[in-house]
Write a structure and sequence with these properties.
Distance between the termini: 61 Å
Helix content: 25-40%
Radius of gyration: 20 Å
Low-confidence stretches: none
CATH architecture of the largest domain: 2-Layer Sandwich
Bound molecules: flavin-adenine dinucleotide
Largest sheet: 5 strands, antiparallel
Strand content: 15-25%
CATH topology of the largest domain: Uridine Diphospho-n-acetylenolpyruvylglucosamine Reductase, domain 3
CATH class of the largest domain: Alpha Beta
Structural class: alpha+beta
Strand order of the largest sheet: 4-5-10-6-7
């Protein structure tokens, strides 16, 4: 018996790719580092694909990094290795990328793929949440822009229509903001490990007063944990923060961080580490722009 071969498409241009997606529901393949794992069927055996595959990793329209006023636009199909080399990419994002997998995966894996895969342990996601990233989705009918926190709905669940491609990730005001931003990942080792906990902190200070502050936690819930209500309580406070203020914020996050036990870690460990990372970030005496 001849096995049925699933159709694959690789168009030269983005508009042709979008037209095909408008006609037919396909699996989009960027670097393929998640798609290949998700659909693997056995050693030496071709992937088992429920739908046709459409390649997008070669499309130059999805590989540009550019500045538009103060905003940074990153093409969804830029690989991690390309982003590490690019002068416009903020250092904290490069630091997060350096913790992802090993160079071979970083040569294939893309930022857009990390977002659309929507894993709770996706390493770029905590930072993209604190950068208030917006996503530009393109289809034959035009573009729409959506907040990353609205796009990601749960593990492997995103708000993408069948005919859309994530074209760009937009980091608003990131190029002139003067904020101190950190990313921390706790895993079994420093590289090539999936996160047990991820944390991103963002703080902008003027004359020792907090103008803006944001936190996001990864791998401790179905999506990134962020609370704008808790963040607002710190705006206007003076650095260094009083112990009572730090304790209040940590207690507020303790109520909303609800991790699970799995093969990588326990809920108790994850929660303790997440809150320790937050406490450490809030206890700093000074914050340098980066
Ligand atoms: C050995 C190994 C180690 C890894 N280590 C890490 C790690 O440390 N940290 C981490 O965060 N991840 C890790 N990953 C996961 C993976 O490498 C990343 O999530 C990567 O960013 C996925 O990008 P990709 O281009 O390969 O995505 P793909 O596999 O091509 O796609 C992933 C998903 O996104 C969709 N998609 C991709 N691009 C678009 C687009 N532009 N528009 C719409 N939909 C799109 C695809 O249809 C698919 O559902 C690892 C994977 C492997 C195999």
């Amino acid at each position: 018996m001849v096995e049925k071969i699933t159709a694959t498409y690789r168009f030269d241009r983005l508009d042709q790719t979008l037209s095909q997606l408008n006609r037919e529901d396909c699996i989009i393949m960027a670097g393929g580092t998640d798609v290949m794992v998700l659909h693997k069927s056995g050693r030496g055996v071709p992937l088992k694909l429920p739908k046709p595959l459409i390649f997008i990793d070669h499309l130059s329209e999805l590989q540009r990094v550019y500045q538009n006023h103060k905003d940074l636009h990153i093409g969804a199909c830029c690989t991690y290795s390309e982003l590490l080399e690019h002068p416009l990419i903020p250092v904290p994002l490069k630091n997060a990328i350096k913790t992802i997998a090993a160079p071979a995966i970083r040569n294939r894996g893309t930022l857009g793929g990390n977002i659309c895969n929507a894993s709770p342990a996706g390493d770029t996601l905590p930072l993209l949440y604190v950068y208030n990233a917006k996503l530009l989705l393109r289809s034959v009918t035009g573009d729409r822009i959506v907040e990353i926190s609205d796009f990601i709905q749960g593990p492997r669940r995103v708000q993408r229509n069948q005919n859309e491609i994530l074209a760009e990730i937009i980091l608003p005001s990131v190029l002139e903001e003067g904020a101190h931003v950190v990313f921390e990942k706790v895993g079994n080792r420093n590289a090539d490990a999936i996160a047990k906990v991820g944390f991103a902190g963002y703080i902008r200070i003027s004359d020792a007063r907090i103008e803006d502050v944001r936190f996001a936690f990864g791998a401790v819930g179905p999506t990134m944990v962020r609370s704008i209500d808790i963040e607002k309580k710190l705006v206007g406070k003076t650095i260094p923060l009083a112990n009572v203020d730090i304790a209040q914020v940590v207690a507020a996050f303790e109520k909303i961080i609800r991790p699970i036990d799995d093969q990588r870690s326990t809920a108790t460990y994850r929660k303790t580490v997440a809150l320790n990372l937050l406490r450490y970030f809030l206890s700093k005496k000074q914050y340098q722009e980066n």
